């Protein structure tokens, strides 16, 4: 079972996608990778990706922004010949319940990014 | 460029947010594991060796790498030769921990040299290392005379470099003042006081104490009450970061307080703020930063000014459904037990309101686990995010040690629980009269689906209720109502609340443009989620068949859906190859008739041979000609057989190749047999 736990900040500059790729290469069947991913989006600067179902359960962190997800791309696709044509692949996407919002304020308008359209890696 | 600047500011903003929420705890085993990783036993200098050994000593790490032999060798080398005073200083520091076997005469020689250096030193750093080394010799070799005969002169030389704001200059010809240098100077002054043969004048000591107070007036402060020191002039020579600067000041102030009588009237909250600064940086990845952090915490652990006490919570997420208990731990900065004290929960209020949920409550103390706990949350603490305010009250105020507990400590708390979903209804209304066309009651915990139909003149109304474990109305962070067309186009609506009920009414007449006049089946999906909701859910409610009018000519077109990478790079559909249909064949009877016609000439040929009188009378009777005749006829038969094989299976090239060989063979044997027949015939004629 592939599991990736990561926190997504829209305005976070840090990009550590290589860690995830290395993890996939080294351990294709069981991956646990904590990752910060950047998605540049001109929304509320305090907006992060929130998942109220698939979050990492923690005793000291309760804002549901550390996301657990297993919707990985098919591993065989990474090693097929299609990989040479497409250097950018959607390796991991969010679950349908995910959305982007400021976790400290109520949501009053529909968010522009929800569900599997949020690309995380 | 503007984007990068905005990103950088956002990064700083995020870092400050992270800093605000962090509740630092005392030093734990995570620090010990990090120490064993950072200090792996290979040191490039005695300074690094000292830092590693000091960290291992403070954290009481047992299974540290054994570096005694190689390091003591370097210590003896440095103490024996005429090393720079900095190397002497760190060699003595290492020797203080490792207790290497050094000859007593070596200490005497070093002490004599260092005393001369103290008198001749012109920079603060030289005085710092010289006096520090003499203090170390005093501890390690009690029979060596290290007392300073002119302590007043040394004290005055160091004091002359101080500035009016409590900072120090590195030398008399260097106008740049430094907070880091103030730490060095205070430590050197403490050394002078402990090495003085006669007591230093008290008025000079009081002047330095005033310098310390002025130094603390320029302390920097974060919003969460953390204090730290920083250099004013960035870019100067050997600029020190805030961690090393703060660590230097802590070393100097604690050293000075240890050798002087009386108290330095520093506020307790600043000492506690310094402790929170060192604890709040977590576990540094740099060896020197790690050493600065750990040694500063060790000095704060047991100092004469005031000892900081750290309140920490093992967990800040509490579940009402599991009946979690609120637990609080109070320790010193290195994790030792605190003196007898009481922890009070002074107040607890919601993070978005100011009404208090809990009035003053005293936590009970669990002696075995060292934890203060609250038996159960009061009934008016419902699910939500709170700020709990704690206070620490020490029992015995007349103790010898002075403790700094800080004032009120604010801790953000999550109280989670299971939210009850009830009274879910979905209905199709007529737009004009408001009458209910179709209404269904839903059980959101079950699996029943609805199947509705509506046109553009009608409305869709959906409502439900959310209740907390204590029976109050609950407003979640996420309440989305989604209509998803069979072509994967989605429309999201936020379900608002009116009073205790959540309700959304979709007037399709006003939404036909938003829906791009797309009729058909729409799946209805409800998502409810919140940080304090333990049963957040995404639920498919059913479907609605919308009958919308045709799109006008100038209506907006449907936006294209994002292409799914799976469909682009995945396996293609299986190709079903279509071969050409076989051509029509003639009937079988017709084919057999023509086969008979083809065989007729062969039969005619055989009949012709019989009428010509073909016979075998001239077949030779002797052995050798008979063999040639036999082979000749066999070759003729082979050629005929080849014709048949060519017809059945061979191609033209294979046939021609075989005929070539057979032809040569027939030419040879035919010539011999015909020669024999010719000679036989001529003999018969002559006879």
TrEMBL record, chain A:
It comes from the Eukaryota. This is Uncharacterized protein. It comes from Glycine max (Soybean).
UniProtKB/TrEMBL annotation, chain B:
The keyword Transmembrane helix applies. Residues 1-20 form the signal peptide. The keyword Zinc-finger does not apply. Residues 423-546 form the Ribophorin II third domain. Residues 579-679 form the Ribophorin II C-terminal domain. Subunit of the oligosaccharyl transferase (OST) complex that catalyzes the initial transfer of a defined glycan (Glc(3)Man(9)GlcNAc(2) in eukaryotes) from the lipid carrier dolichol-pyrophosphate to an asparagine residue within an Asn-X-Ser/Thr consensus motif in nascent polypeptide chains, the first step in protein N-glycosylation. N-glycosylation occurs cotranslationally and the complex associates with the Sec61 complex at the channel-forming translocon complex that mediates protein translocation across the endoplasmic reticulum (ER). All subunits are required for a maximal enzyme activity. It comes from the Eukaryota. Pathway: Protein modification; protein glycosylation. It is found in: Endoplasmic reticulum membrane. PANTHER family: DOLICHYL-DIPHOSPHOOLIGOSACCHARIDE--PROTEIN GLYCOSYLTRANSFERASE SUBUNIT 2, RIBOPHORIN II. Component of the oligosaccharyltransferase (OST) complex. Residues 309-415 form the Ribophorin II second domain. One of its GO terms (molecular function) is transferase activity. It is a multi-pass membrane protein. InterPro entries: Ribophorin_II_2nd, Ribophorin_II_3rd, Ribophorin_II_C, Ribophorin_II_N, Swp1. Belongs to the SWP1 family. Its main location: endoplasmic reticulum. It holds the Pfam family Ribophorin_II. The chain crosses the membrane at residues 590-614, 626-646, 652-674. Keywords: Endoplasmic reticulum, Membrane, Signal, Transferase, Transmembrane, Transmembrane helix. One of its GO terms (cellular component) is oligosaccharyltransferase complex. This is Dolichyl-diphosphooligosaccharide--protein glycosyltransferase subunit 2. GO terms for biological process: protein N-linked glycosylation. Residues 28-301 form the Ribophorin II N-terminal domain.
């Amino acid at each position: 079972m592939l599991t990736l736990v990561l926190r997504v900040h829209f305005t976070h500059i840090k990009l550590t996608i290589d860690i995830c790729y290395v993890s996939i290469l080294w351990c294709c069947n069981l991956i646990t990778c904590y990752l910060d991913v950047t998605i540049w989006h001109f929304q509320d600067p305090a907006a992060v990706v929130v998942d109220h179902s698939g979050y990492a359960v923690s005793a000291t962190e309760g804002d549901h922004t550390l996301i657990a997800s297993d919707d990985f791309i098919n591993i065989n696709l990474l090693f097929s010949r299609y990989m040479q044509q497409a250097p950018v692949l959607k390796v991991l996407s969010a679950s349908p319940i995910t959305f982007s919002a400021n976790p400290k304020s109520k949501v009053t308008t529909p968010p522009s990014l929800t569900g599997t359209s949020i690309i995380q890696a | 460029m503007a984007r990068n600047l905005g990103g950088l500011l956002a990064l700083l903003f995020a870092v400050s947010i992270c800093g605000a929420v962090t509740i630092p705890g005392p030093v734990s085993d995570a620090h010990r594991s990090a120490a064993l990783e950072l200090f792996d036993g290979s040191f490039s200098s005695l300074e690094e060796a000292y830092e590693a050994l000091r960290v291992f000593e403070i954290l009481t790490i047992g299974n540290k790498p054994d570096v005694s032999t190689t390091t003591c060798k370097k210590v003896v080398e440095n103490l024996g030769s005429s090393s720079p005073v900095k190397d002497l200083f760190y060699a003595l520091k290492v020797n203080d921990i490792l207790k290497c076997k050094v000859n007593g005469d070596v200490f005497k020689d070093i002490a004599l040299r260092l005393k001369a250096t103290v008198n001749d030193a012109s920079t603060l750093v030289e005085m710092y290392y010289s006096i520090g080394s003499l203090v170390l010799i005093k501890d390690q070799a009690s029979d060596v005379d290290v007392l300073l005969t002119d302590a007043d002169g040394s004290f005055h030389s160091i004091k002359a470099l101080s500035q009016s704001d409590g900072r120090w200059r590195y030398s008399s010809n260097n106008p740049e003042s430094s907070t880091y240098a103030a730490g060095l100077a205070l430590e050197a002054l403490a050394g002078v006081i402990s090495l003085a043969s006669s007591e230093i004048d008290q008025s000079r000591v009081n002047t330095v104490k005033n310098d310390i107070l002025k130094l603390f007036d320029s302390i920097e402060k974060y919003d969460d009450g953390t204090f730290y020191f920083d250099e004013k002039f960035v870019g100067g020579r050997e600029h020190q970061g805030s961690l090393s600067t703060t660590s230097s000041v802590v070393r100097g102030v604690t050293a000075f307080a240890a050798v002087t009588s009386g108290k330095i009237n520093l506020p307790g909250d600043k000492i506690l703020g310094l402790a929170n600064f060192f604890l709040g940086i977590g576990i540094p990845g740099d060896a020197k930063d790690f050493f600065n952090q750990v040694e500063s915490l060790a000095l704060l652990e047991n100092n004469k000014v005031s000892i900081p006490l750290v309140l920490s919570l093992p967990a800040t997420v509490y579940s009402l459904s599991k009946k979690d208990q609120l637990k609080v731990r109070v320790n010193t900065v290195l994790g030792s037990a605190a003196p007898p004290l009481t922890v009070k929960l002074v107040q607890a209020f919601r993070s978005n309101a100011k009404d208090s949920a809990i009035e003053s409550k005293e936590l009970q103390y669990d002696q075995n686990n060292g934890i203060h706990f609250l038996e159960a949350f009061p009934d008016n603490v419902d699910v939500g995010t709170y700020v709990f305010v704690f206070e620490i009250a020490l029992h015995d105020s007349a103790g010898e040690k002075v403790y700094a507990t800080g004032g009120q400590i604010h801790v953000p708390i999550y109280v989670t629980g299971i939210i009850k979903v009830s009274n879910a209804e979905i209905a199709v209304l007529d737009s004009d009269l408001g009458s209910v066309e179709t209404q269904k009651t839903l059980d959101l915990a079950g699996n029943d689906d609805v199947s509705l139909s509506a046109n553009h003149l009608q409305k869709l109304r959906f409502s439900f209720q959310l209740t907390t474990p204590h029976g109050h109305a609950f407003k979640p962070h996420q309440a989305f109502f989604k209509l998803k067309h069979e072509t994967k186009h989605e429309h999201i609506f936020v379900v608002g609340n009116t009073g205790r009920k959540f309700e959304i009414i979709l007037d399709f007449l006003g939404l036909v443009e938003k829906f791009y006049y797309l009729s058909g089946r729409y799946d209805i999906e409800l998502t409810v989620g919140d940080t304090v909701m333990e049963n957040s859910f995404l639920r498919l409610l059913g479907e609605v068949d919308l009958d919308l009018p045709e799109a006008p000519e100038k209506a907006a077109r449907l936006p294209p859906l994002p292409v799914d990478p799976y469909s682009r790079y995945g396996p293609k559909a299986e190709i079903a190859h279509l071969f050409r249909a076989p051509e029509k064949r003639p009937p079988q009877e017709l084919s057999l008739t023509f086969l008979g016609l083809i065989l007729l000439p062969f039969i005619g040929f055989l009949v012709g041979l019989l009428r010509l009188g073909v016979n075998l009378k001239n077949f030779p009777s002797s052995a050798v000609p008979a063999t040639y005749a036999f082979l000749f006829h066999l070759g003729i038969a082979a050629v005929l057989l080849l014709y048949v094989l060519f017809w059945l299976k061979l191609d033209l090239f294979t046939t021609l190749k075989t005929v070539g060989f057979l032809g040569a063979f027939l030419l040879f044997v035919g010539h011999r047999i015909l020669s024999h027949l010719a000679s036989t015939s001529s003999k018969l004629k002559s006879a």
